[in-house]
Records
---
Amino acid sequence: MRRLTSVGPKGRGDAKTDRVEVSPARAGVIFTVLVLVSAGFVWKLVDLQVSPDDDLLNNVGSYLREEKIDASRGNVVDRQGRLLAFSVPRPSIVGDPRGLANADTPADVDDVVAQLATVLDTDPEVMAARLRSDKSFVYLERQVEPEVGEAVAALGLPGIWILAEQHREHPNGPCSALSVVGRVDTEQVGISGLEKKYDEQLEGSPGRALRQTQLGGAVQIPDGYHVVEPHAPGDELRLSIDRNIQYEAEQLLARALLETEGSTAIAIVSSPRTGEIYAMASAVRDADTGEVGCSNANLGAVWAYEPGSTMKGITFAGVFENDAWGVDEMVEVPATVYVARESGVDSHAYHDYRLAHGASVENLPYTILGHSSNTGTVLLAQALGADALQQTFENFGFGRATALAFPGESTGILDDLDSHSLLLSNTAIGQSIAVTPLQLIQAYNTLANGGVRVAPKLVLADDDVANPTHTDVRVVSRHSAQAVMEMLRGVVSSGTGRRAALPGFLVAGKTGTAWQPCGDVSGYLCSEEDEEEERHYTASFVGIVENDQGPVLSAIVVVDDPQGENYTGGAVAAPVFAELAGYSVRQLHLAPFGEQAVAAQRIRSEPAIASAAIEPPSTSEALQ
């Protein structure tokens, strides 16, 4: 190394500066070392990306976790905004098996499980297997009660922590329209009812967050939680259901089952003008315990049954619409009508029990429907013909699901009526056909609407959102619908449905008492030896309530398999209809005839009180 001397400019004096001179060889060595070190760092970074070290990743990953921020599922509310279903945070117990195994002082899994078993319901062997797995996250028990989460947190176990998740709550347990609203799974995904149908609208969008933690999972770093993507809550779903009317319907159905020892009871309350459903309730009796409670399934939409005489109103609409018989034209109605079976070997006899017991004969369509004459209805159906009756039933919506499109909704059964005359005759009086209560109340709403079918509705929203396939369809003329409605008023004023009358209002409706199929038989009716033992009945009433404004309310009540002598629609279902309709008109502020308004204060449903024993039916009411 040489030291160099520099001399300053002339006249300024001498200035000397020492400068170290580096040889080219040494500079090359230094540069080479720097290049090699840099290359080593680059290689290590690439190696970590391509072939990551499991131990290193485990240690690093245990300090930084990405968490999903659950979106709050939208509320389901009734028409007044009262909650039917909502979501609340619930603690879930989770663990970090890798963290337990790789901690500086690894925790004993058996000891951890033993302590958790004192507060959790999960099988200890299941928890132990999960905590010994090669995972960094496992669920031990999900969506527990808050006090359970607090108890687990108080244990202070390493590798165990609490994760908040959304849990669906229902105010009245298995009732409060839960069978209509539906259920969600633990991931808050709709799996039944309207929760399933409107899952996308209700679910919302989850968010993401980063959380810095220590090895055991507890947060140790201040401000160690950062929201990467915020969540968006789900939309609210407002139903046409009125929670009070729904509750009253559930109470009345439960009482009806207790009094009649029936197996199933169903009720639907709706607006005949808009199709909005105010209540859709169903109750069942446990076959083993005899206890009565709300059904898990929405039986009003998914259960099909033979309706019996409630179908006669629709048969008469077809008769008048097709000019098969005049409204004021006399009918010669015998006490018994014989119709050949499919084989043609023998015949089936239809009876008019009222005529058979000496009742006076006034053979007009009005009295045939009013007293629910089987023989008269069969004669008119034969005059109408199979093709026209089939088309009538299809136009009213039978044989296919309604526009409501409720998940699992039944289409019912409507066979080809042209196959033989016995099927035509049976179907005309509501046998050999299966319908849902929802289909039947839609049909009677059509009559109340002057022959125009309006789709049933459970969601209060624009039609293009809630009912994308909804259109109003004229089914029969206003003249035909009004003729049937006048006859249905007579059913309640002087016929089989007198117990459905409602003071201050006009009620038009029809009773039904149907024989349900018994066993695996080849014909449409049971053999004589099986009739008494295997056959059971279904009692029903469907009706329209009218005031000065016209038809303002409709309801159907069905009680399946009532026991004892009181099993007819007029004796079992009609009184329940009267109570339910009476409560509903007060709850909806529907004024009686001659009054312009009712009290604005809403009423509260009270628990149903057992009524007096149901009176036995008169002879004219039997089998109607």
---
Amino acid sequence: MKRLTGNELRKMYIDYFVSHGHKQIKGASLIPENDPTVLFTTAGMHPLVPYLLGAKHPMGTRITDVQKCVRTGDIDDVGDNSHATFFEMLGNWSLGDYFKKEAITWSYHFLTDPEYLGIDKDRLAFTCFAGDETVPRDTESYEIWRSLGVPEDRIFFLGREHNWWGPAGTTGPCGPDTEMFLIMKEPCGPDCSPACDCGAYLEIWNDVFMEYNKQADGSYIPLSQKNVDTGMGLERTIAVLQGVSSVYETDIYHDIIAKVEEICGKSVNDDEDTKKAIRIVADHIRCATFIMGDDRGVAPGNVDQGYVLRRLIRRAVRFGRQLGFPSERLEEVSRVVIDTYKEIYPELENNKPFIMTELNREVKRFSRTLEQGVKEFDRVAAKAKETGVIDGVTAFHLYDTFGFPIEITVEMAKEAGLKVDAEGFEAAFTEHRKKSQAGSSQRFAGGLADTSEVTARLHTATHLLLASLKKVLGEHVNQRGSNITPERLRFDFNFERKMTAEEKQQVEAMVNEAIAKDMPITVEEMSVDEAKAQGATGVFSDRYGEVVKVYTMGDFSKEICGGPHASRTGELGVFKIQKEESSSQGVRRIKAVLKSAE
């Protein structure tokens, strides 16, 4: 097995698939565009949904990339050996091109060939979809693995919970997957499989085969365009290759962890609590740096991405306090993150001033909150003197509202001669987590893409809106995010103050004037340099030779985008701004609708 660094694995993976006819594309923003179902890009396939549904990708039918991802559903588990909030996903796709045979063969070759990862074939196990009453067993994938020499006792058939993807919503593309596992230790018994949680098997790669289209009646019909979507987690894979038990022990975390240890004067080797706190500070500041450093980066706030970012920074402050870490020095950790990744992700260096400003502002703001929390604790402690116990709900209130971890509450209670109902806290915490997870599931259940005519028109309206904002407020205005549902559009843009009533009226009138002209909407594929030369707006790729789609609406708007769009501006109806408000520091938000012109 080769011992590779993160940078080496990243390059090796991309080079491998480029050698097999794939075109490398730039990973998408961490902030999804026009996707109301997720706050962050959580998988490499999110930005590619229109192309998985049949839209033509400008780079062709075989593509590969490295995608920045954020997942915070397991944020309370961060600090163990495997959970992290930010990670990179290596991926390759077939958009109606090759299918199972090629995908599986290439995956196996990359994993086992000494020229690449060189993993011992005897240490690998695989899973395939077992089939059910609606979709047959995936014997095709099984037979391909067997043809490659994999023994049948290392291929497991598992159900939908383990080997099925999608659809993202209630209907749409979906299909079985086949997963690859590293055997970490002897199975726990004769019935042990990769579905077991004993730790014998560690997933390192997943090939998804989108070959069905789920219908509203629950039936499945074959897709006219069959796709392959694969994903290999960079951090988890290099942990295996480097022979360490945790992603936090890999080279990509080395300098970040070292900076935290240097500042607090403690080591991950001191004890388990110290190790976990150091890892949490390192992980959360790494993730926060990437969110703020994204070209659509947001600032800490009270809603959506800004709220998640705020929680990350505040948790870093809280766990830093346990280490004796001066919170004002968190920016030093962020600078190490930038230095670690700036060659791969130059946007971090480009957006460094914004990152530092917003991080320091949030740290100062939370320091004041902590002071208020201490006052609240004193009030709670005085009240609890009668019983000698701080009840669990109150302890959770201190955690949820003021950011007090239960350990700090217990320590302060002990100094005051009190005890804390830890079981009651855990019960309140568990109930809170169930509600949060239910909310996340409900949010995701809406689907990753809605390509209806209604949303296509609203998406088209965001182009006209951005062009109008630039004309009214200044050319420095750029999109910082958008979210579209069938009912309305939401558009975030950088601007330091509230728009005046006159400015809103001007923007609204300008958009409606562009709609009234009934301009044709044309699309061209061109290189990034050509798009720049033509004055197109948008987040430009830094990869030479990449082809992008440029949508033009008369002489009013020219923007890089992936779609979907109306065919003419006259199809949009009447544009109406419903609200203009603050989204986060330096970012404003417009909510608008399209009404019938009749």
---
Amino acid sequence: MKLIHILPAMLLGASALSPQTADACTNLIAGKKATADGSVMVTYAADSHNLYGMLTHTPAADHPKGAMRKVVEWDTGKPLGEIPQPAHTYNVVGNMNEHQLCIAESTWGGHEELVDTTGNSIIDYGSLMQIALERAKTAREAIDVMTDLVDKYGYASSGESFSIADKDEVWVMEMIGKGAEKGAVWIAVRIPDDAISGHANEPRIRKVNLKDKENVRYAKDLIPFARKRGYFNGKDEDFSFADAFEHHTADTRRGCDGRVWTYFRRYTPEAEQYFAWVNADNDEPMPLYFIPEKKVDLAGMQDAMRDLFQGTPYDMTQDVGAGPNHVPYRWRPMSFEVDGKEYCHERAIGTQQTGWSFVSQSRDWLPDPVGGVIWFGTDDTNTTVYMPFYCSMTEVPAELQHGDINTFDMNSNFWMNNWVANQAYNRYDLMIPDIRKVQGDLEKKFISTRAPKEAQLAEMVNAGDIDGVIKEVNWEGAAIAKEATDAYRNLAQYLLVRFMDGNMKKVDDKGDFQYNEYGIPLYPDFPGYDKQYYERIVKETGDHFLIKK
């Protein structure tokens, strides 16, 4: 389950940066009638233990006849081949293009024998997304581009789920290769405008109305291929893509569908019953989408990306693994064995190994240069700050450009977020209030300033001043990235000073350190551990630490 995010070679002679792998991604989705402001929303967490968090950009370009585009495998950096360029390609910022089209993914693998065995396929899933963003204006066009590419040039990856959104609608498309046969089989389902959906490393499209051509699309040979390979033998109307091409085990339900379930349960009580599916207590699958009882807003979607199973049976702050500071993180590996039985750690949406993530908004009431915005953050979704960058941006802020995961950089947004987060991983319950204050103040500021800024930008677009819009979004994007990075550098230093040596220095209501009347720092507090932790010590050690009378 890997994703690579590099600056691909867009033009003949351009060189790509070093590849970086990512594991186990999460997508959350909301249709425009399911959101508070009418935007179509998609989220994406690119999770990896080796992925540097950066924002990529591909400029719009005109190409002469005969120009070729290099295709580089995102997982390895291996050159796969070249394909002809169209006459024009679009501006792409991260995972969104200038027409507000946004594409995200999560890998689920599927049957190993369906990975390309010919060695001739040249379109991997990462390139598939990027090329579609360069060439398509709408979600439906993107589906056409993606499926045409794999038909023509072969599919060089394993099973994938894609979220494909524009300013009007959002689709989930699932795809897998055909082994020794060229191309891929796939199915795409339009998520209703008033629904929420999601996927996280498990295929989720099951029985659908195959006759609904407006909302369901699929490869012509999908069901015949599944029959031929022995993956399905029922009636066409009972076909389930998810069950034909993947094995759904107890651990994948818990670690993958569990992340989607905990998003659903935030917005509809109906989702609660599907904990039984997630927990492998029954075999009734969780639906692809739900109609929420309350609208999804931007802050709520950002918060959903920080989910740690709070208030559920999987709450990561409550079991013994959380330790005395209620840390909602578990180091890898994910599973372990005791007395011949296999056990697991929880896998939440919020996780330490995220390289970068985003919440996208595509909005039909605003002109494209303003309507498409990526709220982008680096490192752990739980502690990151989501910064707004518009799809018309043409310059990546310095703090978000390419870097090295083995080289610490005080000016890197990714490294400053890591500095903050990795301190909190040791003393979570004590540090997270200080982090939430800085994080919350920044995000509230960024959100509250959008309406006047977007009114200004929309007015400029309507006046035909596109160059002015681009200049403004580049300037503001740079200012926002610098502000967030500077704030977290200061926060990291503050946390180090305040919690030095296991103590907790006294601060006032503003968070400023306190001194006595003579200018001497007040004596620190010793927060110690919670009562439950002390009880566990005695339970496990008996009288070993007992103070004798």
